[in-house]
Request: fold
Amino acid sequence: MDRIRVRGGRQLNGRIAIGGAKNAALPLMATGLLTEGPVVLRNAPDLADIATMAGLLRQHGLSVEHDKAARTLTLSGNVNNLEAPYDLVRKMRASVLVLGPLVARFGRARVSLPGGCAIGTRPVDLHLKGLEAMGATITLDAGYINAEAPNGGKGRLHGGRILFPQVSVGATENLLMAAALADGVTELVNAAREPEIEDLCLLLNAMGAKIEGLGTDRLRVEGVAELHGADHSIIPDRIEAGTYACAAAITGGEVLLEGAGLTHLGAFARTLREAGVAVEEVPDGLTVSRLNGLHGVDAMTEPYPGFATDMQAQFMALMAVAEGASMLTETIFENRFMHVPELNRMGARINVHGSSAIVRGVARLSGAQVMATDLRASVSLVLAGLAAEGETIVNRVYHLDRGYERVEAKLAAVGADVERIAG
Ligand code: EPZ
Reply:
């Protein structure tokens, strides 16, 4: 298993190109099941999760070409298998996004239940209740979800008013795709407003869907009989941008995040500024630099435009070396503090009380062997390593590879002493 070695203490200066957003690309790829296509996705990142989604779609029968040099994914062809097997779904929860498109277009689908994961139990009840409200019959057997459209799968899903009791990115995406091909009008109320949802709406509309209310928590979808191919450019990855913003801030350098934008960072940009980090929009993207010292500020994770849960671990690494204390409260996932004991092994002073972590800043972290069990936790350890004295080895790098493209190369290019150790 590969590891990453970081020798801390170097300032980062220069430019980092931000790739296409993983969490936009995954649902965008699932739209390939809604049409014979082709659906062309530009600015596609080269990540393990993208390869997993491509593998899943191929086993449904689609042709998925990933031209990595051109950063383009092309999806086309016919679906000949309506089952998403456990072996693929367990690798990546976003696999459940094939459910809505398959049942809307083909009348039935059988998709493995994703199960829990390191950051929490993560049920899919909202996806299933929404499909039921659109006329699907859902049964669970042997760890699989069976979904069937009306008339034993021969009829079509119908529109309806779906009020989400809790904001869910994945359920909003699944139901948007299903509603695009349903009979009549579907209203999604208290829908997720993440930029990735708007990106999905833009692609669906380019494919012939009729969605209104983009960027709001109330989406109105008028179903159409069929969708066609389209050409779409994936939005920049706001979480990758936020992560490198933390890298610049924790080392005290100045980095230009090419392609990044302020709006997509939501409350995170404001919180960074409060902590003493300058974040400025420039024509090419965002520049991030530390002003004087870092100071502790509180943050609470919330759905967009609130502070993203996907930035909580990285921000905690930053707060670990800030002056004063900060309280970071996680409201989205119940078990997203797995980086805490690892950061503490590097000399951080963090205590968890329920869903809040109290971080007392220390003057210096020290390098150590660390490992983490999810993507954002892993990268927070790389960030801590950049600021630590001595050498940090981050184990289980495959978590990082799910969502960060060539993290060591991007950091090394702006002056970090970091390398991948194969093995
Ligand atoms: C998406 O996951 C992202 N993944 C996650 O990014 C991100 O952390 C999360 O949204 C929140 O922003 C992708 O986009 C592929 P949710 P998703 O449904 O859609 C509960 C990363 O690091 N819930 O918005 O699975 C759920 O348990 C990843 O890149 C239900 O109770 O998240 C959670 O507490 C990790 N029932 C909350 O809602 C449901 O049916 C929000 O989850 C669905 C969700």
